[in-house]
Amino acid sequence: MGPLTAEGIRLKAFSPPYDRFEATAEAVLGRKNPACGKALVWWLVDGSAQLGEFDRILARPHGVPVIVLLPAAAEIRLTLPLLHRVLDLAPRSVLPAPYLGTPAYLRQVLATPPRSLAEAVIRYLRRRGILRSEIVEQEVRRIFDLASETTSVSRLARRMYTSRRTLGRHFAAARLPVPSHWLQFARLLHVAVQLQNDSAAIFRIATRSGYPDGFTMSNQMKRLIGHRPTEVRECLGWEWIVEAWLRQEAGRGQIVLERSA
């Protein structure tokens, strides 16, 4: 068997300030809802011996990303009993551990936005059981695609070649938050990605994103996801932000969520 991590523990939590791995993953797996910016790091070294860990990761709370680390090529055969199932975990990344499994590099992995934020969010919401209508899924995708350049639902509807009323009917029929809430959140998620990858002042990122000032953007972020820009900048990743918004919308009666694992 390939070398294990410290103390033989192969599944650990990774949390702000992302300078070390926590002793175990219990702080993440034991929660009903994800904490701000927590992730899981899993060293897959022996597929036969790690089935229990795989099942625990699969049942992790919503909003927790997982990074899978693989052994050196000479030892990859030991992972084969589980390797073909790794994608079932919807991992943020699968990396060769001996070279890239350092806290500094994994911090960068968490901060790096997906190639297409819209597609990543759609996949997450589909797995989460939120999007069940193909029409609404296409509309949510367009909202996230257009959010960085559109500030009103009326203008958004025109860009989507539909009417505001039609959009509203589709989302109401799917028992989802109204389109304006989706647009507000999509704009803020684009801002969150910038906050985690750009050291510019918060007010500068806010005005660059179409907000009148940083104060306005900060207040809207607090209202929509329950966190301020400074927290979003320190707590890397986007999955926990999506989950925070869904919980806020559920609290307002805008959506019904299934219970977390």
Give your account of this protein's structure.
The chain is an alpha/beta fold and about 260 residues long. It folds into 2 domains: about 5-110, no CATH class; about 115-250, Arc Repressor Mutant, subunit A. About 50% of the residues lie in helices and about 5% in strands. The protein has 14 helices and 4 strands. It has helices at about 25-30, 50-60, 80-85, 95-100, 105-110, 115-130, 135-145, 155-160, 165-175, 180-195, 200-210, 215-225, 230-235, 240-250, and strands at about 10-15, 40-45, 65-70, 95. It has a 4-stranded mixed β-sheet with strand order 1-2-3-4. α3 links the parallel β3 (about 65-70) and β4 (about 95). The longest helix is centred in the C-terminal third of the chain and has 19 residues, at about 180-195. It is globular and about 55 Å long.
At a glance:
This protein has helices at residues 26-29, 51-58, 80-83, 97-100, 103-111, 117-128, 134-146, 153-159, 164-173, 179-197, 202-208, 214-225, 229-234, 239-251; strands at residues 11-14, 39-43, 66-70, 93-96.
Features of the shown structure:
261 residues; alpha/beta; Arc Repressor Mutant, subunit A; 2 domains; four-stranded mixed sheet; 14 helices; 49% helix; 7% strand; globular; disordered N terminus
